[in-house]
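Lab notebook, bench 4. We co-purified these components, and the gel suggests they stay together. Before we commit to crystallization screens, I want a quick structural picture of the whole thing.
Request: model the full complex, all chains together.
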Amino acid sequence: MEKNKSKEALFSKKNRGLLKDPLNINNPITVQVLGICSALAITVKLKPAIVMSLSVIVVMALANVITSLMRNMIPNRIRIIVQLVVVATLVILVDQVLKAFVYDVSKQLSVFVGLIITNCIIMGRIEAFSLGNPPWKSFLDGVGNGVSYGLILIVVSFFRELLGNGTLYDYPVVEKLGLYELGYHNNGMMLLPPMALIVVALIIWWQRSKTPSLIEKD
Amino acid sequence: MQELINIFVKSIFIDNMIFAYFLGMCSYLAVSKTVKTGMGLGLAVTFVLTITVPVNYLLQTRILDKGALTWLDASFSEVDLSFLSFIMFIAVIAAMVQLVEMIVEKFAPALYSALGIFLPLIAVNCSILGGSLFMQERAYQTIGQATAFGFGSGIGWLLAVLAIAAIRERLKYSHVPPALKGLGITFIITGLMGIAFMSFMGIKL
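Here is the predicted assembly.
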């Protein structure tokens, strides 16, 4: 940090980095390996995936800001419990909002809304970032990581819904294109849970061959 | 009794925490490099699940459910606190993990140092909270059923972690494409194991 820390522009280069890095070289799912659990379970269709991404972005940005505001007051020994309480409160709010406005999606997501609490991505970013950084930076970090998490979710669910169900956001794409008459069949396998893992593995493969610096050494 | 065994077997194989629901994937990927650490964390997860699911079951049926408070006073029959369940469950889990940590530290110091950082991190393992939330969603009838479910899920998690750790130890000697090394190949293997586990789905219990 330079000496004119307090005058740093809202979107200085460093701050833009906080938003952009998670998209590729520091992606929460494919590089930091955080938040896998929910990423895989709710990617059968686009709609729940989008709702889930929005919920995670909101919870994460707010949780980051709140813990960052409290960072100098939290005793080190009980910090995990404090973080859990903050996140759990936010998740209850999100859950109630979802139940009120998009009830059917909230039913599909079932326990996974609650599991945002223990989504490692949120705890991981609080631990690693917002406990040591001012609120605005933490906010950007939360949004950046939330968006890149959502991006992977949407890519995975795009392929799973298109190949497995022949629809996109419940719109029957394949049927409209008339592929069924040509003898095309949906691959029901894509709807099964294990295929999510394999799609993510393919994304990791593609990303790492584009960015060799990410390849793991033995 | 037979019912309890059914729930137990079902939660190990058919509703396996990892292969069917992907819960606890983060720590699963982190500790599965060697069988030894996998075993340690697997046992700890099983232990915590076996305690927290029944405790949260009592909390759910005695306090949080609609009309659950009638054992205190009949006038509470309209009170519905179930929206508080997330925060109550996670508080119980965090407290239990702290307790387990202290007990293990006092009575089994060797195990304590072997588990190291993983023990406190169990609090944020999705499979623990997931266990409690599934217990709530599936509405088990008795505390015995809830315990059988918690214990079975824990054993299922342990089994999955041991299997992948054993495979990963062998994987060192094979030629994996460089970009798939480590994380990528682990995902694919987990996916294949998941497909194998799906063959249990046909079993009706």
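The two ends of chain B are 13 Å apart (CA to CA). Worth comparing against the SEC data before the next meeting. Chain B touches chain A through 49 residues (CB under 8 Å).
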